[in-house]
Specification:
five-stranded antiparallel sheet; elongated; binds magnesium ion; binds ligand C2E; alpha/beta
């Protein structure tokens, strides 16, 4: 490529600025544009910025190029936003070389002044490399720009050092997550986890997050679910000299706007343990929460077997498993195992999101244990016990009662108390029952006779009482039955 041709293109105004829309992911409206330089050369044709920007940086031409792009873009956006009060942000890329240039700050001030664009409508995009290569010098320029009211974005996050510390110490407003990460976000658990971490960290630091290079609806849904604030990409609009900005209402076809519960890589709260494993079930990632949940460092889990860790080879879907805590017994975790498939339908990776449910499971187990205790006390009791409703229908009886009246438990459950009572005792029994039913008596104690199927009378002493539900409603009658002879 010829430096002379580029120089004369810049000098002769033969470059162009294209604008790519940036949309608000909460409603799909266009909230800004990114200015992207375009160079069409008669001989070379359309030269991609990746090539001519590098050449311009190497030759120092980038300073003139950047100044030209900044002024042209500011002038254009000042026209678009004239008389408008709604937020609209123009993003302009700044090369590390420009940022180091002493005149850079003054160039920005002049561009804003000459074009009439308000400083808060301008966002300068810088890359991590630009910052890292010369932190002290660059930081002071960034702080001065911030004081001016200009916003600052960290571009292509995820391609360089991806240092979150960097974000903390600089006056940044926006983090733009590089499209190489966004490309995989709906299908690759590792990338999804990484992006989620960046989003959470950026939000904690008070920054907005822009997802770059969103091309598909699934990616849009995923970045929406992860909490990204804005999005940019071919799905929302390609860079163009005259982007459509007036129709801020979302395209009716933007299905990504409606929250979807299925088809997403499921990631959730910070307390959850997120594990990613490869197709052989070898753990390739563990979130920091494993320190709290299992008393182990993420690096202790990576390289191990997911199957061993969970104590089972899990299928897709919700599961509850017991995991060992390094120095404190075990933890119950409930979670999902989500296989991520490649285009051929083969499992590529497995994502596992686990929530600590130890307290809930312990409580359930205690309840189950006490139910079990109650059941064995009921069935094993040496005296007869019967539960009946207020019409005398038998609801539950224990083996001791069945034996006493010479019938099986299941047989009794088809009968009423009257069916096993001696005919002479039916009258008084009915009277007692109606008293209990009416609430006139909570309990009664009688000596009566049951009748075995062969007609043998069985004298018994019955102690019956009302059973109430937890909220105090009469529920049934419990009767304790002893052979009357035992009492004498
Ligand atoms: P960038 O700042 O990250 O800009 C986004 C790039 O991603 C643009 O490429 C844009 O066309 C492309 N893009 C946006 N959405 C999608 C998508 O959905 N899919 C795909 N595959 N690509 C998408 P472009 O215009 O080729 O620019 C490449 C890079 O060149 C820019 O990356 C930026 O770093 C640099 N650049 C462009 N214009 C300027 C400029 O005026 N000054 C400086 N210093 N750098 C510039
Ligand atoms: Mg950019
Ligand atoms: Mg970028």
């Amino acid at each position: 490529m010829d430096v002379g041709r580029l120089r004369s293109a810049i000098a002769g105004d033969r470059l162009e600025v294209h604008f790519q829309p940036v949309v608000d992911l909460s409603d799909g409206s266009t909230v800004g544009v990114e200015a992207l330089a375009r160079w069409y050369d008669d001989e070379l044709g359309q030269v991609p910025p990746d090539r001519f920007v590098v050449l311009a940086e190497e030759t120092g031409l980038i300073v003139d190029l950047g100044r030209w792009v900044l002024r042209t873009a500011c002038a254009q956006v000042a026209r678009w936003t004239l008389g408008r009060s709604e937020p609209f942000l123009l993003s302009v890329n700044v090369s590390p070389v420009e940022l180091r240039e002493e005149s850079f700050f003054d160039d920005v001030v002049r561009a804003l002044h000459d074009t009439g664009l308000a400083p808060h409508r301008l966002c300068l995009e810088v890359t991590e490399t630009a910052i890292v290569s010369n932190v002290t010098e660059v930081a002071s320029t960034l702080w001065r720009l911030r004081e001016l009211g200009v916003q600052l974005a960290l571009d292509d996050f995820g391609t360089g050092h991806s240092s979150l510390t960097l974000l903390r110490n600089l006056p940044l407003d926006i983090v733009k997550i590089d499209r190489s990460l966004i490309r995989q976000v709906a299908v690759g658990a590792q990338d999804a986890v990484l992006v989620q971490l960046v989003v959470d960290a950026a939000h904690t630091l008070g920054l907005r997050v822009c997802a770059e290079g969103v091309e598909e609806e699934t990616q849009a849904r995923q970045v929406v679910a992860m909490g990204c604030d804005t999005g940019q990409g071919f799905l929302f609009g390609r860079p163009s000299a005259r982007p459509r900005l007036d129709d801020s209402a979302p395209d009716p076809g933007s299905g990504w706007l409606t929250p979807a519960s299925s088809g997403l890589v499921p990631l959730s709260g910070n307390d959850d343990l997120v594990l990613v494993a490869d197709r052989e079930r070898t753990v390739t990632y563990a979130s920091a929460s494993c320190r709290r949940l299992l008393g182990r460092m993420p690096s202790e889990l990576v390289g191990g077997s997911l199957t061993d860790l969970l104590g089972a080879d899990l299928e897709d879907g919700p599961v509850t498993v017991r995991m060992l805590h390094k120095d404190d017994g075990h933890r119950w975790v409930r979670g999902i195992v989500h296989p991520l498939l490649d285009t051929a339908g083969q499992v590529r990776e497995v994502l596992c999101v686990l929530t600590d449910v130890t307290t809930a499971v312990s409580r359930e187990r205690e309840l189950a244990d006490s139910e079990e205790l109650f059941r064995s006390a009921f069935t094993g009791a040496p005296i007869g016990i019967a539960l009946s409703d207020f019409d005398g229908r038998l609801l539950r009886v224990n083996p001791a009662l069945a034996e006493l009246v010479g019938r099986s438990v299941s047989e009794l459950l088809e009968l009423t108390v009257a069916d096993i009572t001696h005919t002479d005792d039916l009258g008084p029994d009915a009277h007692n029952l109606s008293e209990v039913r009416a609430g006139a008596a909570e309990q009664h104690r009688v000596v009566k006779r049951y009748l075995r199927p062969d007609g043998t009378p069985v004298p018994v002493e019955v102690h019956a009482a009302r059973v109430r539900t937890a909220d105090g409603e009469p529920y049934c009658i419990v009767a304790h039955v002893l052979p009357a002879s035992d009492r004498r």
